[in-house]
Amino acid sequence: MIRHLLSSADLSKDDAVLILDTAEELLSVASRPIKKLPTLRGRTVVNLFFEDSTRTRISFEAAAKRLSADVINFSSKGSSVSKGESLKDTALTLQAMGADAVVIRHGSSGAPHRLAHASWINGAIINAGDGSHEHPTQALLDAFTMRRHLGDLDGRRVTIVGDVLHSRVARSNALLLSILGADVTLVAPPTLLPVGVDSWPVQTSYELDGALDKADVVMMLRVQGERMNDAFFPSAREYSRRYGLDTRRMRRLPEHAIVMHPGPMNRGMEITADVADSARSVIVEQVTNGVAVRMAVLYLLLSGSTDAESTEAREEA
Ligand code: NCD
Hints:
Layout: H1 13-30, E1 44-49, H2 55-66, E2 70-75, H3 87-96, E3 101-106, H4 111-117, E4 124-130, H5 136-150, E5 157-161, H6 168-179, E6 183-187, E7 203-205, E8 217-220, H7 236-243, H8 247-250, E9 258-260, H9 273-276, H10 283-302, H11 307-316
Parallel strand pairs: 1-2, 1-3, 3-4, 5-6, 5-8, 6-7, 8-9
Helix pairs in contact: 1-5, 1-10, 2-10, 5-6, 5-10
Bound molecules: N-carbamoyl-L-aspartate (NCD).
N-carbamoyl-L-aspartate (NCD) is lined by residues 55-56, 129, 135, 138, 168-169, 222, 224, 262-263.
């Protein structure tokens, strides 16, 4: 198993399947009256969040607590980051407190890689979303959710729609799904597809209707207003008309197809409320599955070695 989880591309197919299979076993813990295992007792997990988050932060916290780890939550708001403290000094502080794993969300692409490669921290680094770059545990929970509904993902068709340009979820999903053998089609207006998308393992289209008829999964992406400093489409209405999922469009999907969204949703923009709340939507299930998948990631990265062992291993390397 890998030492850090920075990108979906770090995973081999065997690693990814091991995480998904482990998550499957851990999912049952969530349905017990007492939702706790002693596996990570005495280990410390730090949630280091420099960007806003509801689901991901709570999910990592629940996952670590269900494995009996000690959890320290750090949010840059209200911390010394607002006094200008650097990532390095923040990291050294966490190391001094004995962090075994650091879950980091940061507005800058590459921040988790910097933490992992600068040796400021001995523990495992888990990327919980860096800028518009990657969000590998979201991709894992999405793949987990797909697999529960569709079985093996080999040859399955996944259509990912919307603001691909700003979406770390889209990139991490495209990479992971191709590792798992699924066929991914990205649908977006030309202005919301990233430069270099030709080198991604996907097909692209500017037109939604044609990409629904054969899809097993349609994943809608949030239009990320906070990352847009320009006009990427004429109006919200025009965007919804061309790229939004409404009931009429949903009828084009095959009977068994599922509708996904990583949240938070702009209801009425990329997805209508009736689609989001429909029987085909697995959006709430994604959140539940996220805890099991993050438990699996923490367990696999942390349970194998103690901090002393991982320090020795690094010194030998
Ligand atoms: C996503 C994120 O933060 O990248 N949300 C999430 O983690 N559930 C997607 C988004 O913000 O649109």
